[in-house]
Amino acid sequence: MRKKYLFIFVGVLFFLIASFFALDFLFPFPEHKLHPPVASVIRDHEGKVLRIFLPPDGARRMHADFDKISPVLKKTLIASEDQWFQSHPGINPVSIIRAAIMNITAGRVVSGASTIPMQIARMAEPKNRTLWSKIIEAFRALQLKRHHSNDELLEFYLNMLPYGGNIVGVGAACHFYFGHGPETLSLCEAALLTTIPRGPVFYDPLRNPEQAREGRNRVMRQLAEKGVFPVKEIERNMKLPLPDSILPVPLKAPHFCRMVLERNGRIPDTATTLDSNLQQTAQEVLKTHVARLRGDDIDNAACVIIHIPSREIRALVGSADFFEKGFGGAINLTNTKRSPGSTLKPFIYGLAFDQGKLVPDSFVYDIPVDYAGYSPENYDRIYHGQVTVRQALAKSLNIPAVNTLAKTGIVEFIDLLKKGGISTLDKKPMQYGLPIALGGCEIKLTELTNLYASLADGGKFKPYTVTPEENNISAQILSPQTAWLVLEMLSSVTRPEMNETWMLTRDMPETAWKTGTSFGHRDAWAVGISGDYAIGVWVGNPDGRPRKEISGAVHAGPLLFDLLRMAAPGGKLPPPPEGYGISEVEVCAHSRQLPGPFCTKRTTIRTLSGKTKLHPCDECRQIFVDGKSGYRISGECLGRKGIKTKIIRTIPAKLARWRAENNLEIPQLPPLALDCGLIPSGTAPKIISPAANTPYLLRKDTPLKFQQIALKAEAGPDSGTLYWFLDGRLVSQGKSNEKLFTEITVGKHRISVSDEIGRVDAVEFEVR
């Protein structure tokens, strides 16, 4: 008989086990319900919560990793909820029998038998409290225990517990009730977190503090009875107060947090590079400036602060107030595409330095030019003739920048910008053309600021980052020597609120900076470098509305320097690169080229060793003059007696012509001796109007005498009178600085010009 019962018991047991495995296969646990959507938590570089993006169901569910949850809470929960959790198979038969006896004796439900796996099953698949539901919960608990480790189950449990309202899981409960993470819980906090899920409304510490306190202390008394924690520690924790408020959902650095979410996607927890203190101060500074700017019909501003060595964004303010509706407050203006104005000029000159075509003290020309119909002008429409690159950049002159870009190449310049992280240049280079030198494109403030950071990082580009990660991507966009020379030039720019002796003021940071004003007076920019920080500022109207006389120096510059004072007090610029690379070279002071035998005045300039191309000076030369008349002679007359030599300085023809047109003094050669033959030599005139590559259109409704074409040529001081021939017919004559015109007819024509010495230039052009 005993064997029979044993056989029946074994058979039943086998049947139950087989049935379980069959049902487990047919009805697997819905694993996705163990991973409900969680909030995306964005933190600053110290771990403080900046913003919580709630999941679609609106729950404040902040995922907590098992290894980051305090052992105190784990011990408290297991001891209070399921002390045999580590050993039972998912259900506890002893607890079931004990609960059944107690409930039958009392005539009502006074004790439950739910294990932690059973509670997980109930939270994953909520059902009415019936016997059948309990059977399903038991089956699901066995499944959970079979397919997951104890640590995994405890992590699921801790992240699913309800804590009232839309607060779910210990991660959210710790943050909103206690203001810290689950890794630093005290015993009394752990006991409260164990109590609240048993009745989230009944044990709400804010609505029912007495009930919550009694429930918390009851849990701690149970811990004392079971010897889980020392009695003295439990007694001390029972006297501690309950939380009296819930933290609000944080909304700090909203533009930055939104950018992090867009870049990284919805992940449970993101540590960022933001410095909350720097961010708060930057917001206050920017808001103060915008309040003043609005009185000047300028709606908003934005700024970004990048740590140069790591390229981490430490502060980003997308607008003066995220919640403003009338001024584009919700728009992240640091990440919108805008015309950068003159802020790209330093990189044009930097490219020319690396190509060996210019150095900071090279002379460039600031005189009107025409590139096939494109005639750029300076901001103030004032021209300066001959200036150094350093002066051109300090004064932000447009013509020298366009001329330099024409020499370096548009394709090469756009390649440099793209290597430097500018992602918005999506057209072909020739579609941008020379206007890109003056802002004829669109750029984001974040990318422009990081491009400037490359100057202080030895000309090396690295992408900016919003999360603390190893930055292995890099590209050398300028040589270290060129980057330093550009920074050195930018550090000489006069500040908007100080005179040129600002370097003597000790409480101001040493700064390299540049401003820009966009096409159509819509955007004002200022970008600066000091110490370890690159700071970019944009000022303007988010809706693109122009504001006459908006200026980078006037409207963006002061905001930049207030931010620099705050972020980099006492900041310094990088020292010159060590070793071979920058040389001191003696040049002619008049041409900034290698001194020739007749250069009487010399100076020293910095050049790039092995790169800078200099040629012998051709502006200082020796001529022969008659001792009595002072006339210039050449050829067979050089055999006469009384011939003297004279050192003279000439200037390029284009500069001479501009100076003459503006009634400025130009060096004059002595007149030619008429009785001496002179072999044509020197620089021939060069026709600049009419242009060979520009078709001219005649209007049928206008008489030809009112549609004459200008005759202009660049000529040296020894050219004298210029003679103009149209299709072989003399049509005009006069000095190079005189305004000459001629009538034209439809068709193809050839125009030529000859000077007094017989030097000739000619071009063909078309009239339609």
Descriptive tags:
single chain; 768 residues; four-stranded antiparallel β-sheet; five-stranded antiparallel β-sheet; alpha+beta
Task: Give your account of this protein's structure.
The protein is α+β, with helices and mostly antiparallel strands and 768 residues long. It contains 21 helices and 26 strands. The strands form nine sheets. It has a five-stranded antiparallel β-sheet, sandwiched between helices. A four-stranded antiparallel β-sheet has the order 23-22-25-26, with no helix packed on it. Strand 25 and strand 26 form a beta hairpin. Helix 4 packs across helix 5. The N and C termini lie far apart (122 Å). About 1% of the residues have low confidence.
Provide a short characterization of the protein structure.
The protein is α+β, with helices and mostly antiparallel strands and 768 residues long. Helix content is 32%, strand content 17%.
